[in-house]
Amino acid sequence: MKQGKRKGSKRIKKEDMLASVVEFFNQDRKRAFNYKQVAHGVGATTTPQKQMVFQLLEGMAEQNFLIEVSPGKYKANSRGTEVIGRFERRVNGKNHVITDDDESIFIAERNAMHAMDGDRVRVLVYAKRRGHDAEGEVVEIVEKTPQIFVGTLEVQKHFAFLLTDNKVLANDIFIPKTALKGGKTGDKAVVRITEWPDRARNPYGEVVDILGPAGENNTEIHAILAEFGLPYRYPEAVEKAANKIPDAITDEEIAAREDFRQVTTFTIDPKDAKDFDDALSIRRLSNGNWEVGVHIADVSYYVKPGSIIDKEAESRGTSVYLVDRVVPMLPERLCNEICSLRPDEDKLTFSCIFELNGNAEVQKSHIARTVIRSNRRFAYEEAQEVIETGEGDYKEEILALNDLAQKLRKRRFDNGSINFDRHEVKFDIDESGKPIGVYFKVSKEANKLIEEFMLLANRTVAEFIGKPKDGKKPKAFVYRVHDLPDPDKMASFAAFITRFGYKIKTEGSKADLSKGINSLLANVQGKPEENLVETIAIRAMAKAVYTTVNIGHYGLSFDYYTHFTSPIRRYPDLMVHRLLERYMAGGRSVNVQSLEDECKHASDMEQLAANAERASIKYKQVEFMGERLGEEYDGVISGITEWGLYVEINENKCEGLVPIRDLEDDYYEFDEKNYCLMGRRKHRIYRLGDPIRIKVARANLERKQLDFALVE
């Protein structure tokens, strides 16, 4: 009886033993071992366990995971392949290398050679076990990425540490006293990693810049920019170059352009905008049709390729719109003064001129360099009031434009354009940058009026180059493309929305898919799940990018689309202006590969700017909710991960985390496929989209983290 019990206690599952044997060989891949050595190494002591090890070794040799180097002696099959890829460091230690073919290889920390996020590395891929992820070890760091981290300094007598804000690095950074640049405990600093010695637990670094005391608004906003590698101040030399640009326009330049200064022209922008990229002109023609001019600031006239201003703009790629400020792509003298289409000033523009009939059908159009003089600057709210009341400045023109825009819009949706009309969260902010209220930015007719004419101009420019009239091959150009949604993501989206009682087609023609998405978006309007369904729908979509390879724009349902209308704040639009000028003058096609590289950089910078914008909103949300600790709110589960539930508050759209460790009534497991957490014992399920009541538990500004607790 006793003996049976002892054996039972030693019984080990075959898969557990297999995992131990794999681990044993992975720790020393160069030596060969016989089964006794392996059994000893994995702690197999009983006869049945040793027999199991013996059988496993034979099976693993058959599967090519091991090589039998001589009878009964085995070593790891390191004749795996070597690949090169980009290292992705994860704070939970689950590091990966993404190969150039987009394969993901797991790298344990002990096999990482201290590679850092973004480094290009050479990896030895271990022989793969059936049903397991690929695993490997870094054998060489081919190209190091400069490692810049932002965090808070902790200064001791002879050295200091940077406690990083970013979750990518699990270790603090050690900083010698000589590399502190005068930083004090509690300062936010930007630190560059200089080395990570083999035996050291922490990387070594030096302070690049002190941003100021942690917790101050300016410091924290600069820290967000620095964290994403975005510039937080404008180089003096570039400002100086911009200040030398004359703002007077010569008579020769005006004579060389189409003159629209006598045509009614105005701008419609957000009330706090200073950089007016676009203006609309409108006049009735003798045949009863309308002539509408979409006039875009002619930045390319002032910013020459390869100049110091151009290089800075290209590297930035875009203006960054944070919660409380704009970090401009161009120096202020250009973006807010010389190029901005301010009222009662002559301005140089690049324009699309349309002749439209009463049904808003384009009868003819042409593209030209022009000169304009805006008659008035409208804020969206002012133009909206004219549309709603039919009274006010330039009412005939605004009402005519609105009528045309509504017809363009209807036709666009009839043709399969998707109607994402998200509520953007905005903060009312006082002079010190403190959020004092939340409101939602709603897109009304005045916004949509501008949107429709910008879409029309962008599409017209793309067709002009992409569909040459003479039947010749189109020249290299910058397109804004948007791919079809990923079928798998669409299928899981369709499954997700069934719990709210909605259905959607996931197969069929482009137009069928779009119609299905549009009717779903119309049905969720005003419902509690509206924001969530829209968010998940957007996640199922591909991202729009810049490229020379035109595959069309799925979301807009356009075969040709580009960005032409915002050269003050987006570099691709400036590229488009230059290409247009070159090709209209009969110039040869530019080199496709170098244009594609520029497109890729612009897409990357756009993504970074969006991430920084989200981080700045998150920061203000944490600051806003930090004043409301203990208060209760109704919300909806907006995200589910292995570490907890994300909940979005209904009334202000602030999002926080209910950590899984705080769900104390059961042991919860994450079911990735079904977007839910399930309790092991009581089988309680928390699903994406479930309504839930929470109270605000913790607000950590440093880490931009908001924690909620469930209210039962």
TrEMBL record:
Principal localization reads cytoplasm
UniProt keyword annotation of Hydrolase present: yes
**Enzyme Commission number:** 3.1.13.1
The alphabetical list of record keywords is:
Cytoplasm, Exonuclease, Hydrolase, Nuclease, RNA-binding
Give a GO cellular-component term.
Answer: cytosol
Q: Which GO terms describe its biological process?
A: mRNA catabolic process
The record places domain S1 motif at 630-711
Coiled coil, from the record: none
Q: Which domain of life is it from?
A: Bacteria
**Transmembrane regions listed in the UniProt entry:** none
The record's section on CDD domains has:
S1_RNase_R (cd04471)
* Pfam families linked to this entry: CSD2, OB_RNB, RNB, S1
Among InterPro entries, the record links this protein to: CSD2, NA-bd_OB-fold, RNase_B_OB_dom, RNase_II/R, RNase_II/R_CS, RNase_II/RNase_R, RNase_R, RNR_Ribonuclease
The reaction(s) this protein catalyses:
Exonucleolytic cleavage in the 3'- to 5'-direction to yield nucleoside 5'-phosphates
Q: Which family does it belong to?
A: Belongs to the RNR ribonuclease family. RNase R subfamily.
* Function comment: 3'-5' exoribonuclease that releases 5'-nucleoside monophosphates and is involved in maturation of structured RNAs.
- Protein name in the entry: Ribonuclease R
